[in-house]
């Protein structure tokens, strides 16, 4: 980073604490000589997915405090939970609603005070009531982002027989596909393809058939990914011809001019909803935690999320800032309709979840 760009970005408030410290270190300058407002005033650690530490999503926080929070990243919700169980205690975490009950039962979350969330009433009603947001009459999650999971494939390299997630079983493309490294996703896909009544909550009788499907999918995979850039780079290079992917990968590849299609499978497209929760035992500033939540729920944050990543935002006001044609193009124009007409992830009973994780780990180990 040049000195000129460093000064510009610092003035604009678009540098994270990590970037500031890195730039200072490379210049041989100790953080202790840096203005206190840019570093010392921020007492907040956020545990989130890769890509969500970008200042464009919490601009109001940067404007107020002069810097971003400290970020620690995870690649999948189960990985995140295990890190919290091991003793890591950030202030704010970013689980998906389908996993919130599991995180709460593990004792790592505490309730939210929605009265301190300024835009709460502008969250789409269907997101406020989605399973996992409210547990025992208390709110444990502020819905923030939502999107899809489906098969993303190269139209010039795949000869599609039908719009079906069964493409993941097609041996013609063995070693040329990739899967998101998630027990929840793999089990749900296997549940759909094996005809389970509820793919998000497999019964004991349904598990053997689902396990067989998981093994077939595993045999076709080149790798499992935890960062969407792994997928976009491999698809762009032709190393992969198809992958289980999120909306952001579609947006990125189309910007690059790579010929891809995001499948609308006959079985239904999958939809996830994630949000922000407060971590039990956190030692950072609670006031800053709520300021961060408010910044993330701000309509301008939602506009950035929609236009840059192709994901939906939970605040309905965000959609007023994006051209309707662009919303239609991205497939996020009607969030509540999407929830009704898609396979939306929801919480799995604890015992079933544990068995699904066990099955998934066995499959990855080739057992």
TrEMBL record:
Q: Name one GO cellular component term.
A: periplasmic space
Principal place of residence: periplasm
InterPro entries in the cross-refs: SBP, Sperm_putr-bd, TAT_signal
Any Gene Ontology biological process: polyamine transport
Which residues does UniProt assign to the signal peptide?
none
> Which Pfam families does UniProt cross-reference here?
SBP_bac_8 (PF13416)
Keyword tags: Periplasm, Signal, Transport
- State a single Gene Ontology molecular function: polyamine binding
The record's subcellular location field reads: Periplasm
Q: Which PANTHER family match?
A: SPERMIDINE/PUTRESCINE-BINDING PERIPLASMIC PROTEIN, SPERMIDINE_PUTRESCINE-BINDING PERIPLASMIC PROTEIN
Q: What is this protein called?
A: Spermidine/putrescine ABC transporter
Species name = Hypericibacter terrae
């Amino acid at each position: 980073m040049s000195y000129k760009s460093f000064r510009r970005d610092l003035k604009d408030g678009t540098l994270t604490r990590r970037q500031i410290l890195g730039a200072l270190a490379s210049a041989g300058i100790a953080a202790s000589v840096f203005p206190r407002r840019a570093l010392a005033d921020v007492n907040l650690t956020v545990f989130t997915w890769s890509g969500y530490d970008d200042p464009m999503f919490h601009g109001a926080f940067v404007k107020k405090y002069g810097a971003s929070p400290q970020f620690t990243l995870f690649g999948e919700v189960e990985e995140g939970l295990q890190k919290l169980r091991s003793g890591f205690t950030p202030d704010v975490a970013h689980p998906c609603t389908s996993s919130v009950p599991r995180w709460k039962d593990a004792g790592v979350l505490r309730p939210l005070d929605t009265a301190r969330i300024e835009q709460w009433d502008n969250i789409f009603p269907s997101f406020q009531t989605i399973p996992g947001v409210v547990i025992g009459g208390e709110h444990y999650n502020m819905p923030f982002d939502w999107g899809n999971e489906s098969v993303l494939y190269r139209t010039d390299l795949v000869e599609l027989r039908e719009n079906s997630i069964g493409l993941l079983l097609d041996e013609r493309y063995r070693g040329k596909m990739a899967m998101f490294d998630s027990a929840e996703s793999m089990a749900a896909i296997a549940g759909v393809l094996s005809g389970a009544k509820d793919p998000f909550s497999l019964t004991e009788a349904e598990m053997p058939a689902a396990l067989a499907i998981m093994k077939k999918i595993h045999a076709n995979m080149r790798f499992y990914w935890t960062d969407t850039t792994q997928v976009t780079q491999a698809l762009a290079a032709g190393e992969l011809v198809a992958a289980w992917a999120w909306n952001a990968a579609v947006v990125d590849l189309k910007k690059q001019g790579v010929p891809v299609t995001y499948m609308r499978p006959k079985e239904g497209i999958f939809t996830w909803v994630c949000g922000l929760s407060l971590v039990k035992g956190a030692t950072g500033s609670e006031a800053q935690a709520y300021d961060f939540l408010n910044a993330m729920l701000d309509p301008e944050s939602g506009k950035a999320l929609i236009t840059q990543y192709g994901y939906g935002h939970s605040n309905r006001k965000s959609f007023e800032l994006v051209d309707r044609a662009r919303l239609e193009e991205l497939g996020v124009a009607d969030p509540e309709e999407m929830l009704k007409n898609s396979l939306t992830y929801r919480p799995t009973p604890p015992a079933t979840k544990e068995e699904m994780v066990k099955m998934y780990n066995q499959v990855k180990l080739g057992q």
